[in-house]
Amino acid sequence: MSAGITVDDLTKRYGPVTAVDGLTFEVEPGVVTGFLGPNGAGKTTTLRMVLGLVTPTGGRALIDGRRYGDLDQPRRVVGAVLEATGFHPGRRGRDHLRIIADAAGLPRPRIEEVLDRVGLTDAADRRVGGYSLGMRQRLGLAGALLGDPRVLVLDEPANGLDPVGMVDLRDLLRGLAAEGRTVLMSSHMLSEVAQTVDKVVIVAAGRLRYAGPLTELTGAHGETLEAAFLRLTSDPASDSGTGPDSATDATASSAHH
Ligand SMILES: Nc1ncnc2c1ncn2[C@@H]1O[C@H](COP(=O)(O)OP(=O)(O)OP(=O)(O)O)[C@@H](O)[C@H]1O
């Protein structure tokens, strides 16, 4: 029933640049997992490999045990929001969703359900060009939810949200996880992430720095997520998990299984 994400020795090189460097971690159903790292850490590249949009140089990324390209009905298994762009500005929100639903063979009544779920019912007949960034984020999420997927992959879903939008997003993601779905979200907003996620995966320079429960990360050192993040990502050249600071049980067991 439940489906997770497996990232196994995943590597992506662009010429001399190693964007993702032997990354291994699991994302479980039933919780929200935050995917964190400094700019250029390889988060977007990793998510794009999970979604079959970028071909790995090595290793593999699996959803429900299969590569994205091998899923029978991908939109029913995984919903993704990569960027809140690419919307046709003259199109109305509901029409945007209708086009996705029709193309993917998804039932139209589902459109009203997802509009309601993301709080866009009242704005559904307005043109997307007039939407705020936060509304576009929610429309993207609505599109991802159309296929009622068990797995959600969200790149920076909190970008552009005001405080009320943040709280709404948090409640929505936690609700989706509570239904047994797998939710993986990247974010730069650490204080927001700390209130939203149960688990975190932290990368720097394409390599894993930590994968495990948020409470073990912050609890082990009695620090904030921000402090732990800075500690784990401040020296991208050093190996993770081998220094005295980063060799917590959780890091060691998760990063070196
Ligand atoms: N198509 C590409 N061609 C060449 N280099 C790339 C390409 N895509 C990403 N990179 C490089 O790979 C590295 C990782 O980039 P990526 O966008 O995955 O990081 P990120 O963690 O998502 O960063 P940000 O938080 O800034 O979005 C960067 O050095 C980036 O310049």
From TrEMBL:
- The reply to whether rRNA-binding figures as a keyword in the UniProt entry is no
**Is ATP-binding a UniProt keyword of this protein?**
yes
The UniProt record lists the ABC transporter domain at 5-230
Enumerate composition-biased segments (Low complexity).
245-257
Q: Annotated region Disordered: where? A: 235-257
| SMART domains linked | AAA
Any one GO molecular function term: ATP binding
Which UniProt keyword terms apply here? ATP-binding, Nucleotide-binding, Transport
Task: Quote the Pfam families the UniProt record gives.
Answer: ABC_tran
The family assignment reads: Belongs to the ABC transporter superfamily.
Q: What name has this protein been given in UniProt?
A: ABC transporter ATP-binding protein
- Specify the species: Streptacidiphilus jeojiensis
